[in-house]
C-alpha cells in the first residue's frame, strides 16, 4: 500500500498530526493552516495505515456544505473504499441515530423535523390556546426559552419554578409544546440532539453498540460546539474511542448562540492524555493579508495564543474604499468584479461578505444591473425572504384585490383571529361561486353568512386593505410602503419576536422601504399607465426569479460572514466595514461582544487568498434614515503598511477638473463627463438646494438622483435639469 500519498503535500507539523499514534488529540491552529486538510488526511491514514474499518470512523463538521466537501475529499483519497464511514453535522448524525432507533427513542417511524419557522407557528397557536396575550408571551421568546433549556439538557420535569411565576408560565408553554410535538411526532433542532443524548444515556445496549463501533471520532470547527454537543461527544466516545478535535479559539463566532469556546479546555481536562498539536504555517493567504489579520486579532484579550506565518508572496495591499453611500459602495464592488472577470478570473472565485442579510439587497441589484449571476449561500435572496413577501403581499392586494395568493398569505398575518375553519368556508364558497377570495369575502360578509367573531375578523382585514389604499394614494411609493409595513402590523409582529432573526426581519422590512425609495420605474411603465407601485411589484417579482445561478454556474458568491467560516476565495470583498454596522452599535458597547465581532472580522479577512477589499459607506440608509458612519475601528487596527486607500470617487469640489483624474471605471468616467459628482451640492431652479446621491446612464441619457433639502429625493435627466453646482 502506498501511504506516502497520504503525507504528500503536508508540512512536518501536519504530518505529525496525521500520523500521530492513536489517542486523543487537539489540533489548535489559526485560519488557513490546514486544519481541515489534516482532518481529512487523518481519516484516510486511520483507514489505510491503522487499518481502521470505515465503519469505525465518524467525522463531524459544522455545515452540510463542509460535510459534503469532506466526503468528496475522503473518497478521492481512499479511491472509493471509504463507504461505511459516517461524515456529517451534529444534527445530521443524531438524526440518523434517531431514525435507526425510533422505537427506543419513543418516536413514530415517520417522525418529522420542525424547522424554526414551524416551531414558532406552533408555539403561537399554543400560547393563544392557553389564553395568554401574545404581546407578553411572544412565540419567539418561548422558542428561545425552550431551545435554551434543551441545550442544557433540561426537560420540564427538571425545572423548578416554584419561586418564579414568570418562568412558571414559560414552563407551562414548554410543557404544552412538548406534548404537542410528541403527539404529532415532531422534533425540533434542539430536540434532535437532546433526544439522542438521552437515548444513549438510557439505553445501555445502544450506547455500547455505538461506543464499540466508532473507535475514531474527528470534529472540525470545535470552537463552536455548545454544551449538549460536547456532552454528546463524550457519551459517544466513552472510554475507548480516539478523538481528534481541530479548532481555532480566534474563530469562535457563535457565542451568541450558546457555543462555548471553553469546550476546548474541557476537552483537555476530560479526555485521557490529550496531545496538543499546533500548526503555524498558513497556506491560504498572501503575507499582507495574513499580517493584517494577525495584527487585528492581537487586540483581543484572553486568547489561547498562536502564531501564524507564511512563505507565500507578499501580494497586493488590502484595498480600502470609502463609498459615498451604499449604492456607490455596491457599484465599486461590482465594477471590480467585472474587471476581475474581464481579466480572465472566474466569478466563483469571488465572494462578497457582509455582516447582516439585509445588506445583500443593494449588492444583488447592482449585480443584476451589471448582468453578473450570483448565488447567496446560507440564506435567501432578498425578495424571497418571508417578511419581504409578507409586505409585498399587502402591496399586491392593494394593487389588485383579486390576487388570491397574496390574500392567502396575509389574511391572518399578523394573526387577527381568522381561523382555518373560516378560511376553509371562504375557499369553498369562492370555488362554488367561481370568484376570487376577496370578492367572496365581501359577498359572504354582506350576506351575513359567517358567525360573529369570524365575520368581524374578516371584516377588519377587508377594511384594513381598503384603508391602506385610500390613505396612501397620494403618497410617494416609499411612504406608501412604510405605511403598509406599520399599519398592517407586520413590523410590530416581527419586533415583538425579539432575537437575532427577528431583528434581521425588521431590518429587511426597513430595507424594503429603502428599495422603494431608490426605485425608478422604467420609462415604458409610465407610458403604459402603470402606477409606481405596480411597476415596483413587477420589478420585485422579476428580480426574485432572475440572476439566481444554478448550482454549477459560474457565479459571484454572496454570504454573511458567519456562513463564510471554513471557506476560501481568491478575491474577497468585505462590505459595510464601518462603525455602527461592523461592529454594530450594540456590540461596540460590550467588551465580550466586541471581541466576538473582532473574531468575525478575523474570520472574514482570512477567507481571502489573493486580494482583499474592505469597503464602507460614509452615508447609509439604515432603518429608513440616513446615517453617517465612520470607518470601522477594525480597519483602523490594521497596520497601515498593509493598506491602500482607493480613490475613485469623483471629487466634490470642482467637477469640471475631475474628468481625467478619476477615469478608472467606465461608469465613473461617464458620470464625470456630465460635470457632476457624487456628494456634490447643487441648486435646482424649482426644487432648491440638494445633494447628488446617485447616477445612472451616460451622455444624453444620464440621470442623477438628488436629495433636495425640502422636496425629497428625485431622479432628474442631467441634460434638462438645469442643475447648478454649488
Ligand atoms: P480555517 O481555519 O479557515 O478552517 P483550515 O486551518 O481548516 O482553515 P484548510 O482549509 O485546511 O485550513 O487549508 C487552507 C488552504 O491551504 C487550503 O487551500 C489547503 O488546501 C491549503 N493547504 C493546507 N496545507 C497545505 C500544505 N501543506 N501545502 C499546500 N497547501 C496546503
Ligand atoms: Mg477548516
TrEMBL record:
It comes from the Bacteria. CDD domains: DEXQc_UvrD, SF1_C_UvrD. One of its GO terms (molecular function) is hydrolase activity. InterPro entries: DExx_box_DNA_helicase_dom_sf, DNA_helicase_ATP-dep_UvrD, DNA_helicase_UvrD-like_C, DNA_helicase_UvrD/REP, P-loop_NTPase, UvrD-like_ATP-bd. It catalyses: ATP + H2O = ADP + phosphate + H(+); Couples ATP hydrolysis with the unwinding of duplex DNA by translocating in the 3'-5' direction. ATP binds at residues 29-36. One of its GO terms (biological process) is DNA replication. Residues 287-566 form the UvrD-like helicase C-terminal domain. Its EC number is 5.6.2.4. Residues 8-286 form the UvrD-like helicase ATP-binding domain. Pfam families: PcrA_UvrD_tudor, UvrD-helicase, UvrD_C. Keywords: ATP-binding, DNA damage, DNA repair, DNA replication, DNA-binding, Helicase, Hydrolase, Isomerase, Nucleotide-binding. GO terms for cellular component: cytosol; DNA helicase complex. Belongs to the helicase family. UvrD subfamily. PANTHER family: ATP-DEPENDENT DNA HELICASE SRS2, UVRD / RECB / PCRA DNA HELICASE FAMILY MEMBER. This is DNA helicase II.
